[in-house]
Design goal:
238 residues; 2 helices; elongated; mainly beta; 8% helix; Porin
Length: 238
């Protein structure tokens, strides 16, 4: 369903381009903002919430339609998971050990912005677009020993016991995604405004597993590292 939506959205973006901007709308605007980013879906159990920063340029095709190119940075808060480690590569007595993951999510996207009316200071708008998302994750632990882990959101999957130093480190994934949302633009000058925006991002991530724990015979957690993010942003357009 999400992939079909993406193809339809791409067609809509190209269809919006031919018109020319009118005199009563500034043809090019910059936007800069920041705020809070929530993590949703299965990823919320593996990575934490954080903050965001966005920087973009908007080309106003006409008073109602604009095309935005944007860069976004979203910090990912530290998340703790407890994973069993063993004293030898052959097993032994399991020791529950703390593992931590943090990182960020960066993206570049192209969006279509629809503003129904510009006749008032408070101007609601909706937007949607497609982008490329880069998601690095850093994994740390104070523990030593051997462990078995398969965590799609940490981009790591070892079906056999491996040394902890093979699990810890930095990993990343670059994937396609989409976003849609809306906000309120409030004019504070001839060409300047403050905006409040809520946006939903969905990222198609790589797949890990399925794998079986050789010590217990149970299936390890596996799946796709699809991401769901909800940034809430306040910023300026000028």
């Amino acid at each position: 369903m999400f992939r079909r939506f993406g193809f339809v959205l791409a067609a809509a973006l190209f269809a919006a381009v031919p018109a020319t901007a009118q005199d009563d709308v500034k043809p090019v605007q910059l936007n800069i903002g920041g705020g809070y980013t929530g993590i949703y879906g299965a990823a919320a159990d593996h990575i934490g919430n954080g903050g965001n920063f966005t920087l973009g340029v908007i080309f106003n095709v006409n008073p109602k339609i604009g095309i935005q190119g944007e860069y976004g940075w979203n910090g990912i808060g530290k998340k703790q998971l407890v994973i069993d480690t063993f004293p030898t590569p052959n097993g032994g007595v399991a020791v529950p050990t703390d593992f931590f993951a943090d990182g960020n999510m960066q993206y570049g996207d192209v969006n279509a912005i629809f503003t129904p009316s510009r006749n008032t200071k408070a101007q609601p708008y909706v937007l949607a677009g497609l982008g490329v998302y880069y998601r690095p994750v850093n994994i740390t632990t104070p523990g030593v020993g051997y462990t078995t882990i398969c965590d799609p959101y940490w981009y790591v999957c070892y079906p056999t016991l491996v040394a902890v130093d093979q699990v810890v480190g930095s990993r990343s994934s670059t994937d396609f995604g989409m976003n849609f949302g809306g906000g309120l633009n409030y004019k504070v000058g001839e060409s300047a405004s403050i905006y409040f925006e809520v946006r939903y991002h969905y990222v198609w991530g790589p797949e890990f597993g399925p794998q079986v724990n050789p010590l217990t015979g149970t299936q390890l957690p596996s799946g796709k590292a699809n991401g769901q993010f909800l940034p809430i942003t306040v910023g300026f357009r000028f």
